[in-house]
Design goal:
Blueprint (H helix, E strand, L loop, with lengths): L2 H13 L3 H6 L9 H14 L3 E4 L4 H13 L4 E2 L9 E3 L13 E3 L12 E2 L2 H12 L7 E9 L8 E7 L2 H10 L1 E2 L1 H6 L6 E6 L21 E5 L4 E5 L4 H4 L2 H17 L2 E3 L1 E7 L5 E7 L6 H5 L9 E6 L3 E5 L5 E4 L4 E5 L9 H6 L5 E3 L2 E2 L5 E2 L33 E5 L16 E9 L9 E3 L3 H9 L2 E3 L11 E3 L12 H14 L7 E5 L18 H12 L5 E4 L2 E4 L13 H8 L3 H15 L8 H16 L3 E3 L3
Parallel strand pairs: 1-6, 3-19, 4-5, 4-10, 7-9, 9-11, 14-23, 23-27
Antiparallel strand pairs: 2-3, 6-7, 6-8, 10-11, 12-16, 13-14, 13-15, 16-17, 17-23, 18-22, 19-22, 20-21, 24-27, 25-26, 28-29, 28-30
Helix pairs in contact: 4-6, 12-13, 12-17, 16-17
The structure holds oxalic acid and manganese (II) ion.
Length: 632
Amino acid sequence: MQPFYQTLFFLFCFLGINTEVFCNSSPNIPFQNERLAAWIAEVENLCSPDRVHICDGSQEEYDSLCEEMVKLKSFIRLNDSLRPDCFLSRSSCDDVARLEDRTFICSFHKKDAGPTNNWRDPVEMRSHLKNLFKGCMRGRTMYVIPFSMGPIGSPIAQIGVEITDSPYVVCSMRIMTRMGKEVLTELLNKDFVPCLHSVGAPLSGECLDTAWPCNRENKYIVHFPETKEIWSFGSGYGGNALLAKKCFALRIASRMGREEGWLAEHMLILGIENPAGEKKYFAAAFPSACGKTNLAMLKSSLPGWKITLVGDDIAWMKIKEDGKLYAINPEAGMFGVAPGTSSTTNPHAMETIQKDTIFTNVGLTKEGDVWWEGMTKEAPGGCLNWMGECFEHCPNEKIAHPNARFATPIKNCPCVDEAFEDPEGVLISAILFGGRRQSVIPLVTESFSWQHGTFFGTTVSSEATAAANGPIGILRHDPFAMLPFCGYNMGDYFSHWLSFEKRTDPSHLPKIFYVNWFQKGEDGKFLWPGFGENGRVLKWIFERLDGKAKAKKTPIGFVPTLESMDLTGLPLDHDALHQLLKVDQKAWLQEVEELKRYFKIFDHTFPKKLSQELFELENRLHADLSEEVSPP
Ligand code: OXD
Ligand code: MN
């Protein structure tokens, strides 16, 4: 590679000159990162695109790709006076969600994928994928997207490069990550995670005229954890195609975190400030469809308490020189579930998605705006459903697909935290786990220690809702909300969590809590109002960390005393509160039996310390040691 061309290329990048022209005229793309140059050439060879476009991440590039997609009918421009710079995209009916059964962890050894992942032999999988990718971009453009996960230059950030044949992916990645030419500069002295994606259609000879190309027969979302590579074929949707998100920032990054001593978690990050202006940061893990985005952007009903958003889905956390745990949100955007989002459930999200947003699979109103179930009481007349059909003709169908999404920039959120772009990250004071449970699990519980809190993480489970596939109400265990996202053996992942107690002075680590907003009364109604009122639980946690709030020591952990929760102005009757904070010994003993049954799948990889936690919990339940205690 000629140094002259390298210099010229970077000069062109910085001057904003179209690198596409330059690259097309030069088959060996002159990148300074030789591995990147070689990889692009290799993929170009394999996929045979007509053109290669190196994305610079500019507004002009984004606008022109959006325009191109409007012409292809892949995008519908929404009414500019109602929703400026917003587009609606409609996917094909068989490409509407993450595909867990088509997601593979191809570690060298099967045991390293563990009992919760689909494993395939990496050599066989690679050769199968190469056949699928061969010539798959013929007639079309291959886009190269350099992106940073985390603020560019952050010591916690990582670089990736996605190659895709989908302009929808390019535009979504521009919202979801920091992408473009600044990242190429980072690549001068950093390595990257190669992420190869093709929608797998149209293949040569097939009709070119598809608004949402994808491959019906073959869908694969594949991770090679040892070599840190991602290959995805056949789907254009969300986590299957925006490879920075679940594939890189969770599956590959969790594995990196284990090797390098940090944590990549399926967690939101929020700032919480009390009326005196004191601030802390919490991270929280909930399974999909448990209101993570809503909590991350909560408008608290308590006067003077303010919640700010750092991240709504993923946290990367590292111990710094001071021995404390700091987190960044590796993403720059939110890919939130639209149905159920409204000015009541999430007013800040509604404001954020007012502009610069890509909507997928929502309804389209006569006025050229979007609509989904839960946005308002009634669907507006003349609304088209997510497939573009007139709603009046199929009134029993949903207007929006239950997994309809918005991709929107976090910087547009009215409650974005001042440290969102801070490369150093934010100091995490508390970690919350939670799930959707109708009974048994109290509103909030504080763990006794990091080890006990790690045990909390292993017990996360949630009852399935209509928004997810599978029977409603069935309990799904989802340890740390990472079941579909842990890139290695989950038993080893539990041990990795436990290891943090040894990596630093345990008193420096965040306190761990478990929350459940979803308990129901005998009448089937939720006992706790949720949404903005969840701020009251966050307040209790905040004050617990300051040693101010009272708690009762129970066999399962510390639970608020009835008086310690701030219920000012909340019409919640005493029985409901009692029920919300109750530890039902009999139900908990059944829970223990269920956990014993579930943990068996991890076999000898389940850490002894956590078996001990379960054993001690059972003993405490039998002894029922509940007693009133003052703050620690
Ligand atoms: C998501 C999920 O899409 O967790 O964020 O399923
Ligand atoms: Mn998620």
